[in-house]
């Protein structure tokens, strides 16, 4: 099963489960499909590591913290996609997982092809749709084009008008590199040649306000693209 080119080396999957053999097998397969995958084996580690991931594959049978509580805590932190994994294939278990915040629920015995298909489906639903009005969601970052509000991990981020427009322009096409010239035309509505200082200043300010340089990636000699925090 092929992964979309835009996902290659960019989509970070956190595999959570205390069965080392199963977790390692899932990580190997995810990496083979082009995802950046890593695993942790406790709920405490999951709560610490999930912010550096784009999707969490969460086994609910954990040795230290109830898996549903871990799921609930990750969901409260933002809109990151979560797929819960449980050995108990009952309607009640699936309902409890979904109510705790999971986007999908699969059984431990789920085959590799089905697991990959479910991951792709959940990521597809989570991708921003720039052609539709509303909110762009990139992991914990929410950009509301209607109210012009930015929230990161649920907390508001105060931006200037141009900072908002620059961020929204980059986030509307995640994974795509936008040239400096095009950014000047879209955000500042000018083709002014000496644009480097203006754009660099705004990018520097955005990175500081978002708390990580990795939110906006510099592509040397070309321009910028949206990254991950």
From TrEMBL:
Keyword Transcription regulation on entry: yes
Single GO molecular function: transcription cis-regulatory region binding
Record domain Response regulatory: where: 12-123
Keyword annotations from UniProtKB, A to Z: DNA-binding, Phosphoprotein, Transcription, Transcription regulation, Two-component regulatory system
InterPro entries: CheY-like_superfamily (IPR011006), OmpR/PhoB-type_DNA-bd (IPR001867), Sig_transdc_resp-reg_C-effctor (IPR016032), Sig_transdc_resp-reg_receiver (IPR001789), WalR-like (IPR039420), WH-like_DNA-bd_sf (IPR036388)
4-aspartylphosphate modification, residue list: 59
Pfam families the record matches: Response_reg (PF00072), Trans_reg_C (PF00486)
Keyword Cell division: no
Gene Ontology biological-process entries: regulation of DNA-templated transcription
GO CC annotations, alphabetized: cytosol; protein-DNA complex
SMART domains (UniProt xref): REC (SM00448), Trans_reg_C (SM00862)
Top-level taxonomic group: Bacteria
Stretches assigned to the OmpR/PhoB-type domain: 133-228
DNA-binding region: 133-228
Listed name of the protein: DNA-binding response regulator
């Amino acid at each position: 099963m092929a992964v979309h080119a835009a996902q290659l080396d960019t989509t970070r999957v956190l595999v959570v489960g205390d069965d080392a053999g199963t977790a390692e097998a899932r990580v190997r397969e995810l990496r083979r499909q082009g995802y950046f995958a890593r695993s942790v084996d406790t709920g405490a580690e999951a709560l610490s590591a999930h912010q550096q991931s784009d999707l969490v594959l969460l086994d609910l049978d954990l040795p230290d913290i109830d898996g549903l509580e871990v799921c609930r805590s990750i969901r409260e932190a933002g809109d990151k996609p979560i797929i819960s994994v449980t050995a108990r294939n009952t309607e009640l278990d699936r309902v409890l997982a979904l109510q705790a915040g999971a986007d999908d629920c699969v059984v431990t015995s789920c085959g590799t092809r089905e697991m990959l298909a479910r991951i792709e489906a959940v990521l597809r639903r989570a991708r921003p749709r720039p052609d539709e009005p509303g909110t762009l969601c990139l992991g914990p970052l929410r950009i509301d084009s209607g109210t012009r509000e930015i929230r990161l991990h649920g907390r508001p981020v105060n931006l200037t008008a141009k900072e908002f427009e620059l961020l929204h322009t980059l986030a509307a096409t995640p994974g795509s590199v936008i040239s400096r010239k095009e950014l000047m035309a879209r955000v500042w509505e000018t083709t002014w040649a000496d644009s480097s200082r203006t754009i660099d200043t705004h990018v520097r300010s955005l990175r500081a306000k978002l708390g990580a340089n990795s939110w906006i990636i510099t592509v040397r000699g070309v321009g910028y693209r949206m990254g991950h925090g």
